[in-house]
Write a structure and sequence with these properties.
71 residues, mainly alpha, 3 helices, 0% strand
Length: 71
């Protein structure tokens, strides 16, 4: 882990993503997609579909792969 990139208890997903990008830990558009899907699921009144779930899983796998490749 890079110093200053660990999430704080008060952080929103977007704040965690922004800090990770600022510290060159993540540069992935998949991370943005994942945060957007999380916020949509959390705050929108509509039901999320299986397609949303599949998109989130794919984005999460991409982010994990990117994090594993980060020195």
């Amino acid at each position: 882990k890079s110093p200053g990139t660990s999430p704080l208890e008060s952080d929103t997903p977007a704040e965690v993503l922004a800090r990770a990008a600022e510290n060159n830990v993540l540069q992935s558009s998949s991370a943005t997609e994942l945060v957007d899907l999380f916020e949509e699921a959390r705050f929108s009144p509509h039901v999320m579909t299986e397609g949303h779930r599949a998109d989130a899983v794919a984005a999460l796998r991409h982010v994990r792969r990117e994090l594993q490749e980060t020195p």
